[in-house]
From TrEMBL:
One GO CC term, this protein: membrane
Annotated compartments: Membrane
Taxon lineage: Archaea, Methanobacteriati, Methanobacteriota, Methanomada group, Methanobacteria
Spans through the membrane: 32-50, 57-75, 81-99, 132-151, 163-183
UniProt entry tagged with the keyword Isomerase: no
UniProt protein name: MFS transporter
Entry GO MF terms: transmembrane transporter activity
Domain of life, source organism: Archaea
Record membrane topology: Multi-pass membrane protein
Pfam family membership, one: MFS_1
Length: 189
């Protein structure tokens, strides 16, 4: 669920920055750098913490931060300030990093050594399935709200609405992911 809610975020932000805010592709790329940079910083810390704290707790906290970060972007508009976009990326990236390393730790720690290959392959399959689902959701929302038209200034209002709806859908799905993770923790006690 986490990958299906986060994969399309960079794509949506790129469209938002270029079409709605009018940034060049190069400037949009630079503005999107805080997301991977914060992930590079937080991921190793999250990995170390997941050796000391139940990885499911860290993954749940990561999902919560991810949901908050996705929610940030469901309120972007035609005049959203750049610091808001950067702050949203920092929250989103921190959440994703707090989820990913502990999640992998929990998966690999739950199987015997002889099953590491199967567990790793299954986790990769789930990640890729989530990524595909993410773009399927975006395409569905764009098809319903924008239609089969070229993106021009006349369609920017619909594009912005589609981006907001996609981020809301992803945030709600991510919040549901928190509940399933928390339920899994409660059920295992």
């Amino acid at each position: 669920m986490n990958y299906s809610t986060t994969t399309g975020a960079v794509f949506l932000l790129s469209l938002y920055l270029q079409y709605i805010l009018g940034y060049t592709p190069q400037k949009a790329g630079l503005v999107l750098l805080p997301l991977p940079l914060i992930m590079v910083i937080v991921s190793p810390i999250a990995g170390e913490l997941s050796d000391k704290i139940d990885p499911r707790i860290l993954a749940s906290v990561g999902m919560a931060l991810t949901a908050v970060g996705l929610s940030f972007f469901s309120y972007v508009g035609f005049f959203t300030a750049l610091p808001y976009v950067i702050a949203g990326q920092l929250v989103l990236g921190s959440g994703f990093a707090l989820f990913s390393s502990p999640n992998t730790n929990a998966i690999m720690g739950s199987v015997k050594k002889r099953n590491y290959g199967v567990a790793s392959a299954t986790a990769s399959t789930m990640r890729l399935s989530g990524q595909v689902l993410s773009f399927g959701i975006i395409i569905l929302i764009f098809s319903l709200l924008i239609g089969k038209v070229q993106i021009t200034p006349d369609t920017y209002f619909n594009l912005l609405g589609s981006i907001r709806v996609a981020f809301k859908v992803f945030a709600v799905a991510c919040f549901m992911g928190i509940l399933t993770t928390a339920y899994g923790k409660i059920a295992s006690l």
